[in-house]
Design goal:
single chain, about 575 residues, mainly alpha, three-stranded mixed beta sheet, 24 helices, about 5% strand
C-alpha cells in the first residue's frame, strides 16, 4: 500500500466546510448581513409556527362553548406538565425570555443553547395553548436570539460577532410576532441594546424586514388587529387621554409590583416545589376562566372586539382586574410566557372602559370607545415595558393612521412618567435581579478606560459555609487576616458577613443559629468584574468591609473572586503601613 494510503482520510465535506469557514472569517461584515437575512427567515418561520400552534391547538383544547370544567382542567394539566419539563430539562426557558436574552448579550458572550431554544418554543407553545394567559412575543424574542446565537457559533464567528447577532434575532422575532417591522427595530435597539445608535442597525433592519416578509407569505397580508379609522373629535379629548395616561401609569405600577411581589413569595418556597409551582397559575387562570372565559389564552381576538366597540363596559372593567390577577400569578409561579401580550390586552380593556364612560357622558365631544382602547394598548405597554418610542411606532404601524399619534404620545408619556416615579426599576431589570442577573448600565457598557474591578480581583480562598453556626464562624474568624468573608451554600454565594456582625450576633445570644440567618441572599454588597474599581472602594466604605465578592452578571450566586481593600489601595498607589 502506498504512503498516501496510510494517511488519515479527511472527507471532502469537512475540507469544504473548513474552507468556507476560513473564507467567512475574512469577510465577516458581509457574512453578518447574509446571516441577518437567514436569521430573519428562520425566526419568521418559528414565530409563524408559534402563532399557528397556540391558536389552533388552543381552539381544540377549550373551544368556544365548551363545558366550564374544560376551562379549569386544561390550564391546570398544562401548567403541571410544562412545570415538570421546565424544572427537569429546560430551566432557562421559564418566564418571558427578554431578561435571559439580555443576559446572553451582556454577560454570556451571546451564548444561548440549542436545547434552551427548543425548550422555550415547545414549552411556551404548550403552555399558551392550554389557556395560560401569557404572551408569545417575549418567548419569540428568546427563540429568535437563540437561532442567531446557534448559527453564529456553528459558523465559528468570534464572540463579539455572535453578540452582535442577538439584537438581529430579537428584531426578527418582534417583527413577525406583532407584524410591525419598524417597531421591531426600535424595540431591539431601545430595550435590548439600550442604544438607538447601535452599529448593528443595518443588520437589525434587514432581519426585521425579512421576518416580516416571511410572515406575510405564510399567513397572508393580515394585520394583527383590524382597526377602524379614528379621528380626534374635539380638543377636550386631550384631557381624557391624559386621564387615561394617569390610569395606565397606576395600573402599570400595580401590575409590576404585584408580579414582583408574588415572585418573591414563590421564591421562598422549598426548592423541591419548583416543578409544580406553575400549577398555582394554572389553577387561578382556570377558576377565573370558569366564570370569565375571556381571561384564558393570549386573547387577541377579544382585544379586536374592544378596538371595534363590540365589548360592554362591565366586561372590560372586569377583565382589567381578572386578567391582571391571572397573568401575574401565572408568570410568578414559573410558567413559560411573556408579558407583552397581556400588557396590550389589559391596556385595551382599560382604555375601552374609560372611553365607554367618556363617550356615555360626552358623546358629542369624544370618539368611539375603540379609539381609547387603541391608545390604552400603547399606554400600558409604555408603562410596563418602559419602551415609549416602540409603543408609539407599534400602534401607528397597526393603524396606519396619523390621527392617533398625538393622543398616543400624550397618554404614553404620562403613563411612562408615573410608572417611572412610582416603580424606579423597569420590569425586565427587576425580573433579572430577582433571578440573580445584574446587567450593566449604559455607562458601564461605554467602558471609558477607567480601572476595572477585574484588574484587582483575586481568587476567593476564604469562604464560610452558610450551615456553620455563628459560634463556629466567630472562632474561625479569629484565625484569618480579614474582617469579612463571603458566605456560600449549595447554590453558590449567598452573602457576606463581617466580624462586627458576628460579634453583634454573639452578644445577642445567636451563637447557635446558622450563618445563613445573618445574610440576605438577594441583597448583599458586591461588584462585577467590568465595574470601575472606585465603586468597589465606595461599597466597602458604605458596608464597612475589607473584602467584597465579585460576582457574575448573569448569576449573582456565581462567585468569581474577591477584591481586598489593600489590593484596591495598592492599585491607586496607596500603601498601608503594617
Amino acid at each position: 500500500m502506498s504512503e498516501a494510503g496510510d494517511q488519515p482520510v479527511v472527507s471532502w465535506r469537512k475540507t469544504s466546510l473548513r474552507w468556507w469557514v476560513s473564507r467567512l472569517a475574512l469577510r465577516e461584515q458581509q457574512v453578518l448581513l447574509i446571516l441577518s437575512i437567514l436569521i430573519g427567515a428562520l425566526t419568521g418561520l418559528a414565530v409563524v409556527a408559534f402563532i399557528v400552534l397556540t391558536e389552533r391547538l388552543g381552539m381544540r383544547l377549550y373551544p368556544v362553548g365548551s363545558a366550564a370544567w374544560h376551562r379549569v382542567l386544561i390550564p391546570v394539566v398544562g401548567s403541571l406538565g410544562m412545570g415538570y419539563l421546565l424544572f427537569r430539562y429546560f430551566p432557562d426557558a421559564r418566564g418571558s425570555g427578554v431578561p435571559q436574552t439580555k443576559a446572553a448579550l451582556f454577560a454570556r458572550d451571546g451564548f444561548i443553547t440549542l436545547g434552551t431554544m427548543f425548550g422555550k418554543f415547545f414549552c411556551t407553545s404548550a403552555t399558551l395553548a392550554s389557556g395560560i394567559p401569557l404572551g408569545r412575543e417575549g418567548p419569540s424574542v428568546q427563540v429568535g436570539a437563540g437561532i442567531a446565537s446557534v448559527l453564529g457559533r456553528r459558523l465559528g464567528l468570534r464572540p463579539e460577532s455572535v453578540k452582535a447577532l442577538i439584537p438581529v434575532g430579537t428584531a426578527a422575532a418582534i417583527a413577525a410576532a406583532f407584524n410591525t417591522p419598524l417597531a421591531a427595530v426600535l424595540f431591539s435597539l431601545e430595550e435590548i441594546m439600550g442604544d438607538l445608535n447601535a452599529p448593528v442597525l443595518g443588520s437589525v433592519v434587514l432581519a426585521s424586514a425579512t421576518s416580516w416578509v416571511v410572515l406575510r407569505l405564510m399567513l397572508g397580508n393580515n394585520p394583527l388587529f383590524h382597526v377602524p379609522q379614528y379621528q380626534l373629535v374635539h380638543p377636550l379629548e386631550f384631557a381624557i387621554y391624559t386621564v387615561l395616561g394617569v390610569a395606565g401609569g397606576l395600573v402599570s405600577v400595580a401590575f409590576t409590583k404585584l408580579l414582583l411581589g408574588m415572585r418573591v413569595l414563590f421564591s421562598r418556597l422549598p426548592t423541591w416545589t419548583c416543578w409544580f409551582q406553575p400549577v398555582a397559575g394554572g389553577l387561578v387562570a382556570g377558576l377565573l376562566g370558569w366564570r370569565l372565559p375571556q381571561v384564558l389564552g393570549v386573547g387577541y381576538g377579544y382585544v379586536g372586539d374592544a378596538l371595534n366597540g363590540k365589548m360592554a363596559l362591565q366586561l372590560m372593567a372586569l377583565l382589567v382586574v381578572f386578567k391582571l390577577l391571572a397573568v401575574t400569578t401565572s408568570y410568578a409561579s414559573g410558567n413559560a410566557g411573556g408579558i407583552f401580550g397581556p400588557s396590550l390586552f389589559i391596556g385595551a380593556m382599560l382604555g375601552g372602559a374609560l372611553g365607554s364612560v367618556a363617550h356615555h357622558w360626552l358623546p358629542a365631544y369624544t370618539a368611539e370607545p375603540g379609539a381609547y382602547a387603541l391608545v390604552g394598548m400603547g399606554t400600558l405597554f409604555a408603562g410596563v415595558v418602559r419602551a415609549p418610542m416602540t409603543s408609539v411606532v407599534m400602534i401607528f404601524e397597526t393603524t396606519h393612521d396619523y390621527a392617533v399619534i398625538v393622543p398616543l404620545m400624550i397618554s404614553n408619556m404620562v403613563s411612562f412618567f408615573i410608572s417611572s416615579r412610582m416603580q424606579r426599576q423597569p420590569i425586565y431589570e427587576a425580573l433579572g435581579i430577582q433571578d440573580g442577573i445584574h446587567l450593566p448600565g449604559a455607562e458601564v457598557r461605554r467602558r471609558d478606560g477607567q480601572r476595572q474591578v477585574s484588574q484587582a480581583m483575586r481568587a476567593a480562598t476564604e469562604v464560610m459555609r452558610s450551615e456553620m453556626t455563628v459560634r463556629e464562624a466567630f472562632e474561625r474568624a479569629h484565625k484569618t487576616e480579614f474582617r469579612s468573608w463571603p458566605v456560600a451554600d449549595e447554590r453558590g454565594l449567598v452573602g457576606i458577613v463581617s466580624l462586627t456582625r458576628l460579634e453583634h450576633a454573639m452578644s445577642h445570644g445567636e451563637e447557635t443559629k446558622p450563618l445563613s440567618h445573618l445574610v440576605d441572599a438577594l441583597d448583599f454588597p458586591h461588584v462585577h468584574p467590568d465595574q470601575p474599581l472606585h465603586l468597589a472602594l465606595e461599597r466597602m466604605g458604605a458596608a464597612e468591609l475589607d473584602v467584597l465578592p465579585v460576582v457574575n452578571r448573569a448569576n449573582i450566586h456565581h462567585l468569581m473572586g474577591v477584591v481586598i481593600l489593600s489590593d484596591v489601595l495598592n492599585s491607586y498607589g496607596v500603601k498601608r503601613r503594617e
